[in-house]
Design goal:
Layout: E1 4-7, E2 10-13, H1 22-42, H2 53-67, E3 74-77, H3 85-95, E4 101-104, H4 108-121
Parallel strand pairs: 3-4
Antiparallel strand pairs: 1-2
Helix pairs in contact: 1-3, 1-4, 2-3
Length: 127
């Protein structure tokens, strides 16, 4: 169970209280850093969202993952910034490592970003 805190009217998930392994949390933080680095060049998220990438994008993606069926593979069409595809792959890495995640985007710059994320967060990419 995740713990939620109300700060100045915004709901934010406290990362240390997420019900995930330390390795998963580390991978999510690595992904967050990559999003912030790359968004300056290829506009993965809006500039106004950069201070809130965790609660507006990562936590939302975790909620999608939690609500999805446990079995089956994923296809994220229009993956862009990797939400929810990369986050879901990271979440599944330790719990259901045989799941396959396919991320599709027409923008080759965003595809390069997604490949970089797979290398740095290592959610077991498959060719």
């Amino acid at each position: 169970m995740s713990f939620v805190v109300l700060i100045l009217g915004c709901i934010a998930l406290i990362p240390s209280k997420m019900n995930v392994s330390r390795e998963t949390l580390d991978s999510l933080h690595q992904f967050e850093e990559l999003v912030l680095k790359w968004t300056k060049k290829i506009n993965l998220i809006s500039k106004g969202d950069t201070p809130h990438v965790w609660d507006r994008h990562i936590v939302d993606s975790v909620q999608v993952f939690d609500a999805a069926p446990v079995d089956g593979d994923w296809v994220d069409i229009g993956s862009g910034g990797g939400f929810p595809g990369i986050v879901a792959a990271i979440m599944a890495k330790h719990t259901t490592p045989d799941r396959q995640f396919t991320l599709v985007d027409s923008d080759q710059r965003k595809c390069a970003f997604l490949r970089t994320c797979l290398l740095y967060t290592s959610p077991s990419p498959r060719d």
